[in-house]
Each structure stands twice: as structure tokens, then as C-alpha cells.
Specification:
By secondary structure, this protein is mainly β. The protein contains two helices and 17 strands. The strands form three sheets. A nine-stranded mixed sheet has the order 4-5-8-16-10-11-14-13-12. The radius of gyration is 21 Å and the shape is globular.
């Protein structure tokens, strides 16, 4: 899909402001808020409406950390959160967090081709797969309707030759049999959809359609849940063992385990939230 951004292998891992000029010919409207009388013309009313939309996208209380920077990042509890707006043609996006397990992002990306961002939480493992006894992750998220996006893990080996995507929820049809987005794949159907190498494979606590391909930088294996969910536990070690059993990977050193939202389109602004999250490794 894309090369890593300036914040490291993190997808993907990678205004002008001024006074509002009022035309003297505009017809003013007068109203009262909190006993303060304001005069606004049509252009000012539109500006106020846009500001209200932006305000309602923020958490009810001020978050511990937030950033609208393209590569904004924050370390907390052994994890790192990234805003990670790596794609071209992106719109505004703000990430906020109270902790690595309670965070969210508001994004307003246009309805154009291409992935715009992958805001995520990342933890580095740094052990060979055979030396890992347990590697599981539990997540509870809230995702919007509409747009084009995936709620996905992105698991890397330390050399970044292998990338394992684990789609939990997404806007394509179940199992990515149709619709968008589509996973990276070597094989495609006559209708133009990615063709899985394996279908309905039960491993790691769920059932998946499994795809294989590359993005010219690294190999990509996509495990796409056949039933979408925002709340689950994934046995990542079991998925790694399955990949080794198929000869797709060897006993390599594991790098980062990331989870977040790969956003292609979110016109008008959409809210994505992680309500709870953890990675257990020993």
C-alpha cells in the first residue's frame, strides 16, 4: 500500500487565518446567545456552523494529548500513538488520547482515490516468533457509518519484509468479496476484486479470508474477518504460526504490533474511537 512515514515504519507504518471581511451589501441577521446580541451575515453563519461541527467531533472533556500534525506522536505506557497522515490528497485530521487504550481520531478526507492515513497505536515486540509464548490483543472500538476505511492491525517483522494486516471491520462486503477497499493481492477476479488464497480459515480466534501480495516494498498478508466486529481478542501468535506452517514466513524477529484505522475517505468528518485496547506478550 505505502511506504513508512517520517515517524518510522508506521504506515502506514507513515491556514491561513485572518479577519472575515463582510460585504456592506449583505443582509444582516440578529439573534441572541446567552443574552449577547450578535450580528451575522450569511457567510458568518456558515463559518459558525463549520466551527460547531469541528467542536462536536472532540471528546466531551479535553484529552490528555491531541495533535493535528501530519506526523504527530505520543508515547504512553510502552506504546506510541501516531496521527500518521501519509497519503496524498488528505484533508484535516486530529488525533486525541487519554492513554494508549483510550484514544480516537476525527478525520475529514475527501472522496478521492487512495489511502490518506493510518492513525494507530504501536508496540514493539523485538523477539523471535519461536521465543514468544503468548501474543494476543484485545480491542473495543467505535467506527462510523459511510466513508471508506478499515479497522485493522498491522503487524511487522523487524526487517519490514513481511506485513500482516488483520482486518476486523471495514466498508467492503464481508470477507472483502466485493466493495471497497480491497486488500493487496496477486490474484484478482474478472469483476476486479482481490481473490483470496484461502477462504473461511479459522485461526487466532476468528474465521478469515486470507490474501497474499506485495506493495513493491514488502510482502503483505491480509487476514480479513468474514464477520465484521469492533470488539474482539486476536491471537496474533497463532496467526504467525499459521503463516510459518504455509512457508510464507520463517522464524523471524517480530517488530511492531499496530492497531488503528486506515482511512481512505471520510468526507464531512468522521469519528473513530478506541474504547479499550491491550497487547499481551510474553
Amino acid at each position: 500500500m505505502a511506504a513508512p512515514g517520517a515517524a518510522g515504519w508506521n504506515r502506514r507504518t507513515d491556514g491561513h487565518s485572518g479577519p472575515l471581511r463582510v460585504a456592506h451589501g449583505d443582509c444582516p441577521h440578529t439573534f441572541t446567545i446567552n443574552h449577547i446580541t450578535e450580528t451575522m451575515n450569511a457567510r458568518q453563519r456558515l463559518f459558525a456552523a463549520a466551527a460547531l461541527v469541528a467542536l462536536t467531533a472532540l471528546p466531551a472533556q479535553a484529552a490528555t494529548w491531541s495533535s493535528s500534525d501530519q506526523w504527530g506522536s505520543w508515547n504512553n505506557g510502552g506504546y506510541t500513538l501516531y496521527n500518521n497522515i501519509w497519503g496524498s490528497g488528505a484533508g484535516p485530521q486530529t488525533i486525541w488520547a487519554n492513554s494508549y487504550s483510550n484514544w480516537g481520531v476525527w478525520a475529514n478526507h475527501p472522496a478521492t482515490d487512495g489511502i490518506k492515513s493510518y492513525p494507530n497505536v504501536s508496540r514493539t515486540i523485538g523477539k523471535s516468533i519461536s521465543a514468544i509464548s503468548t501474543l494476543k490483543s484485545t480491542v473495543s472500538a467505535t467506527t462510523p457509518s459511510g466513508g471508506m476505511w478499515t479497522s485493522t492491525y498491522d503487524v511487522w517483522d523487524s526487517s519490514h519484509d513481511h506485513e500482516i494486516m488483520i482486518w476486523l471491520n471495514y466498508t467492503a462486503a464481508p470477507g472483502a468479496t466485493s466493495g471497497l477497499p480491497q486488500p493487496i493481492s496477486y490474484n484478482w477476479t474478472s469483476a476486479g476484486y482481490a481473490k483470496p488464497v484461502y477462504t473461511n480459515v479459522t485461526v487466532g480466534g476468528s474465521t478469515w479470508n486470507i490474501f497474499r501480495g506485495d506493495n513493491t516494498a514488502n510482502l503483505v498478508y491480509s487476514f480479513i474477518r468474514t464477520t465484521k466486529t469492533n470488539n474482539t481478542t486476536v491471537d496474533i501468535k497463532a496467526i504467525l504460526n499459521w503463516l510459518i506452517s504455509k512457508g510464507w514466513m520463517t522464524d523471524t524477529t517480530l517488530g511492531e504490533v499496530q492497531y488503528g484505522f486506515e482511512i481512505s475517505q471520510s468526507s464531512g468528518g468522521k469519528d473513530f474511537r478506541v474504547n479499550s485496547y491491550s497487547v499481551t506478550s510474553n
